[in-house]
Amino acid sequence: MIKITFYSLLFVCVIGCYKDAIPTPTLPTKKLTFLDSIQVWQQIIQPDSSECSVGFVFSIGDKAIFVSHFYTDRSTLVHGRNADTGQKSWGLPSNSIIQSVSDAVLTDAQKLFVNSWGKTAIIDPYTGNIAWEYNVKETPNTGGNPRIGYFRNKLFQGIFSAEAFPSVGHLLCTDDGSPQWDTLFTVRKVENNDFSPMVIEPVNGTLLPNGDTVIVFSIGSWNIAQNRGKGDLIALNLTRDTLQWQIDDFDINLSTQALPIANGKVYVNSTRKVACVDVATGNVIWEAKDFSLGKLGSNMITVGNRLYINTLEWDGLYCLDAGTGAKLGKSSNYGNVDALSHYNGRIYFVCSGDGKLHCVNATTMREEWAHLPSNNRIDSRSSFAFAGIAIDTARGYLYTSDHFFALCFKLPE
C-alpha cells in the first residue's frame, strides 16, 4: 500500500513538472522601423561603401536617376537604376563628365543636364549615353555659374568675367540639341549703379496669353563701397527679343532656385519676404513678411491655390494663399529644409537640420512622420541631409539616399 501511494505521488509530480517546463528561448530579431516597413529596395551606391555628401535624384519612366557627389575626392557618379528593383541599369565612370557637380535638371523633353562651374553635359536618362558636353570656361576670360535653368527645349546659364571680383555678367542660351550659345542679357558694373554682378539664378519660363515666351530670373550683385548686396528681378520676352520688365533692388539674397510660375504669376522670395508678381506686367500683386523666427529658404512649390515655402534657422514650413499671400498654416520647427515635393495631399522633403525624411499633411500642415535612416546602416553618419528626393507618381515610390545606399520607399495612398 505504501509503495502504491509513493509511485502515485511521483507520477503526479512528474506530470506537474512537465506542464510548467521552461520553453525553449527564441533568438532576438531586429526591430523594424517605420521606414523599414515601407522600404521597397536599397542598393549600395559605391562598392567600397564610400559616403556621398550631396545628391540629386530624379524619376523618369522605369528609371530612378541618382547624381551623387563625394567630397572626399571631389568625384561625381551619375547612375540610372531600375525603378522596381534598384539594380543599376547604367552608370558613368567617376568624373567621366563633370567633377564636383553643382546642379542637375531633368527636363520635360526627357533629357538630363548636369552642371559644374561652367561645364554642362546632356545625358539620355534611359541609357546613360552622353549627347554632348561643353565647357564654358573654354571661352577666354570667363567663368561659369554653378546653376542652370531650362524651359521649352532651351538651356540657360550665366557666365562672368574671370576677374577676382567680376564686373560683367551674361545670360547665355542654347537649344538642347547642341551647344551653340547666344547671349540674351548682359549686366555691367558701370550700368548697375556700381554693383558688380555675382550670380545669375536659374531661369524659369511661361507662355503669355498672346503666345509670347517669357523667362524670369534674378541677378545678385555686390557693392564694395556700400558693403551691401542687391537682387534684381528680370523678365525677358524671347519671342520679341525684348526686356519685358525689370524690378531693380527687389531685395538682397533672392532665391537660388528656379522661381515657381503658376496662372500667370511668378513667386519670388528673399530671406525676408515672399512676393507674387504678374509675369506679363511686372506688377507686384502682394508681399508677405514677418516669418517668425528664421529666414526664408530657396525652396517653394505651388499646389492648387497654395504656396509652400521653407525656412532656415529652425522655423518650419509655411503655407500661403497663392492668390493673396495670407498665411494659412505652419508646420513644426526644423532647420534647413531641402527641395519640396508634393504627392497625394502630402509634402515630402529631407532636412539638413535633423537629417530626417519628413512627411507633412499639405492641408493641416501637421507633420505625419519624420524618420532617420534605419539604425546606422554603415555608420553613425547615415542621414538624409542634402540627399535630394524624387517621387514616382506612377508607382507611388519615393527615391532618395542615406549617403551610402540608394533607397526606395512606398508612399501611403
Give an overview of the whole structure.
- The protein has a domain at 139-289: Thrombin, subunit H.
- The chain is globular, with a radius of gyration of 27 Å.
- Strands 10, 11, 12, 13 and 14 form a five-stranded antiparallel β-sheet that branches. Strands 15, 16, 17, 18 and 19 form a five-stranded antiparallel β-sheet that branches.
- The protein has helices at 2-19, 34-38; strands spanning 39-44, 54-60, 63-70, 75-82, 88-92, 103-106, 112-115, 119-123, 130-135, 142-143, 148-151, 154-161, 168-175, 182-188, 196-200, 204-207, 213-223, 228-237, 242-251, 261-262, 265-269, 274-278, 284-288, 296-303, 306-311, 317-321, 327-330, 341-343, 346-350, 357-361, 367-371, 390-392, 397-401, 405-410.
- The protein has 413 residues and is mostly beta strands.
Q: Features of this protein?
A:
five-stranded antiparallel sheet; Thrombin, subunit H; mainly beta; 413 residues; 6% helix; single chain
Summarize the structure.
By secondary structure, the chain is mainly beta. The protein has 2 helices and 34 strands. 6% of the residues lie in helices and 47% in strands.
